[in-house]
Amino acid sequence: MAFEMRKSPKNSRAAEATGVVPMPSSPSIRICAEQLYQALQQSPLHFGQGSEDPWQEALWMVSSATGIAYGNLDQHGDDVVDSQALQCVEQWLQQRIRQRRPLAYILQRAWFAGLQFYVDERVLIPRSHLGELLPEQLSPWVCPERISTTLDLCTGSGCIAIALAHYFPHSRVTATDLSVQALAVARINIEHYQLEQRIDLRAGDLFAPLGQQRFDLIVSNPPYVDNSHMTALPREFRQEPWMALAAGDDGLELLIPILQQARKYLHENGVLIVETGAARMALEAKFPNLPFTWLTTTSGEEVIFVLNAKDLPVSQ
Fold first, then answer.
1. Which segments of the chain belong to CATH 3.40.50.150?
2. CA gap 178, 202 in Å, rounded
3. What is the pLDDT of residue 100?
4. Quick one: pLDDT at residue 146?
5. In angstroms, how far apart are the furthest CA atoms of the chain?
6. What is the pLDDT of residue 17?
């Protein structure tokens, strides 16, 4: 785990004037991270796009610039940051503060379910709660030995599809997305992990490109942000693809057809697992008779449901 921050005096006047705390020449990794933290913490930024707070982003910058793994920074806290790495973090910091660019887009890198992914403005930055469940093979709601075919709806960067292939090594994965641009990014990540023979990308809306295929497991983190919340999104979040977030007046624009059609594409003992975000209440009101099982994650939120194929509505 990366080292804990040592409290340092804040140079508030400099931060207010320039948005950046002055960086000493040849700082140690620890000092560099603390200075970055101060600048990020004193700026009107929003977090939550693959990083939770300014300290995590500071460490992420230092790790990326120095090439030292995030989890190993504590072993190198006194190492000197060379001039090239220092120039990188200063440039990244300028973009993060002055342009409010999400750090994942600046670094073109994000982590999900213990795996690293290429990302850019064509895709949503990976951050689904599913990321902590997939390494556990979705246990106990899924029996890994029975999963040979899986489907990832709204794949975006391909992070869920790749995690499914990684943690269910005997499964073949199909992944769909309406955005051809997003699929181009997913293809980059699939090629990086050399999974071209196990992941089949399909362009189209939800189930449309699937024909008569059926699956043992369907997983999705679809758009679920309603219109009122879309208009209130912070500047960082507005730089992500609109279609990867927006889901109509009630946030159910994609969740409803997923529930209405999923049974047709599942085997008899198949399982559907979907993240709903803040649309949970609206979804339960729309489908009051469905026996949703809501999963608790480390955040305490219950925004992922599990349904067995037999409990889903009969597809029209």
1. 112-311
2. 9
3. 97
4. 94
5. 67
6. 36
The residues, ordered by sequence, that sit 6+ positions from 67 with a Cβ below 8 Å of its Cβ are none
Do 198 and 175 contact (CB within 8 A), yes or no? no
Give dist(CA 34, CA 100) in Å, integer: 20
254 Cβ contact partners less than 8 Å away, ≥ 6 residues apart = 154, 206, 222, 223, 224, 247
Encoded tokens for 47 = 């977090």
Q: Where, residue-wise, is CATH 1.10.8 in the chain?
A: 12-107
Second-level CATH architecture of 12-107: Orthogonal Bundle (1.10)
Q: Judging by beta carbons within 10 Å of its beta carbon (0-12, 13-18, 19+), is residue 168 exposed, middle or buried?
A: buried
The domain 112-311 is classified under which CATH number: 3.40.50.880, 3.90.870.10, 2.120.10.30, 3.40.50.150? Answer: 3.40.50.150
pLDDT along the chain (316 residues), means of 10: 49 41 81 95 93 94 95 92 94 97 97 97 96 96 96 99 98 98 99 98 98 97 97 96 97 98 97 97 97 93 96 85
